[in-house]
Design a protein that fits this description.
The strands form two sheets. An eight-stranded mixed beta sheet has the order 6-7-8-3-9-10-12-11, with helices on both faces. The protein has helices at about 50-60, 80-85, 90, 110-120, 125-140, 155-170, 185-205, 215-220, 240-245, 250-255, 295-300, 320-330; strands at about 5-15, 25-35, 40-45, 65-70, 75, 95, 175-180, 205-210, 225-230, 230-240, 305-310, 315. It is built from twelve helices and twelve strands. Helix 4 (about 110-120) packs across helix 5, helix 4 runs parallel beside helix 6 (about 155-170) and helix 5 packs across helix 6. With about 325 residues, it is of the alpha/beta class. Residues about 325-330 have low confidence and may be disordered. Helices cover about 35% and strands about 25% of the residues. The two termini are about 30 Å apart. Strand 9 and strand 10 form a beta hairpin.
Length: about 325
């Protein structure tokens, strides 16, 4: 499949501490990520693993400390945020934010929120064209015209989520970045929004980067999955590979820790110990040491690189192999 977005060696470091305790927090630490046309890739991991930061780097909402980002072969990573915001790629990459309650302008009506976004990113359009696009986006997300004049505080959580999606798709993006788009919604509303996202992807041919801590959602909607731990991708593969034959012990623990009635009464892998600090991590040491049930002296001497355990399935573990991956299936 043709790659529309490619990120290489992405890093985002934040200075922390004062005086003699200064350090660098490695929020994203040398990540490679490729998104194919029409593909939905999920980013999963514990809170603080860097998945939302990675999504914001790819969306060019925050600057990277290091690394490269290309979109449709064009270098967008070296552009300033201001230049990127004024360029044509800004409309091609859109974001649906986590909290629909906080991401909508409370002083605008629902339709104006969508129309204002179009006006900003498509200044060549006249008023009639802008309103036609806004109304079409409303219809595509299932919002009736009667809601167009309501303000965000007059809408339900599900309706606000639809307005946020309408705003993003109204400018015809090729890549939609969804940062926990259903986490603030009731379970019944989540299912409706996920169904809508699936329909929009099929209709418009968009690619998705779907950030979530909910493994059931990721399994339902994604083609591929990238698992993050302390700023790094430690395993990636198709959804079936990740969930059926996980090769990294952290991925296995994540899946074992998710609620599943089918595993009732079965022994599951638990992680002991505490996570390593993301501040000034040792580059010659595996970040998962101290929690990993497979730790060995080698893990303290050399950080594992992502390596292929089978076609399209990579894991950053010295002991990852097709055989260890199959332990989950057995």
């Amino acid at each position: 499949m043709t790659a529309i977005l490619k990120a290489t060696g992405l890093r985002k470091l934040y200075p922390v501490g004062k005086m003699f305790t200064k350090g660098l927090l490695h929020a994203v630490d040398g990540v490679d990520l490729t998104v194919a046309a029409g593909e939905c890739i999920g980013l999963v991991g514990e809170s603080g693993c860097g998945k939302s930061t990675l999504a914001r780097l790819v969306a060019r909402l925050i600057p990277a400390t290091d690394g490269a980002i290309t979109f449709r072969g064009n270098d967008i990573g070296s552009q300033s945020l201001r230049r990127f915001a004024a360029g044509p790629e800004r409309a091609r990459i859109q974001v649906v934010f986590q909290d629909p309650h906080e991401s909508l302008n409370p002083g605008f009506t629902a339709l104006r929120i969508v129309a204002d976004h179009i006006r900003t990113l498509m200044p060549q359009l006249d008023h009639g064209q802008i309103m036609a696009r806004a109304e079409a986006a409303f219809a595509d997300v299932g919002l009736p015209p009667a809601l167009s004049r309501r303000y965000p505080h007059q809408l339900s959580g599900g309706q606000k989520a639809r307005v946020g999606i309408a705003r993003a798709i109204a400018v015809d993006p090729e890549l939609l970045i969804l940062d926990e788009p259903t986490s603030a919604l009731d379970v019944s509303v989540q299912a409706v929004i996920l169904k809508l996202l699936g329909e929009l992807r099929a209709k418009r041919g968009m690619s998705y980067i779907f950030v979530s801590h909910d493994l059931d959602v990721i399994r339902l909607i994604c083609d591929r999955v990238a698992v993050m731990y302390l700023g790094r991708i430690i395993e990636t593969g198709t959804t079936a590979q990740i969930f059926d034959t996980p090769a990294h012990p952290y991925t296995r623990a994540l899946i074992d820790g998710s609620p599943d009635p089918a595993r009732r009464g079965m022994s599951v892998q638990r992680l002991e110990g505490s996570a390593s600090s993301p501040v000034n991590p040792d580059p010659a040491r595996c970040n998962f040491m101290g929690r990993c049930p497979m730790s060995a002296p080698l893990c303290a001497e050399r950080a594992p690189a992502l390596k292929e355990t089978r076609a399209g399935h990579l894991a950053a573990c010295h002991f990852a192999s097709p055989e260890t991956a199959m332990q989950k299936a057995e």
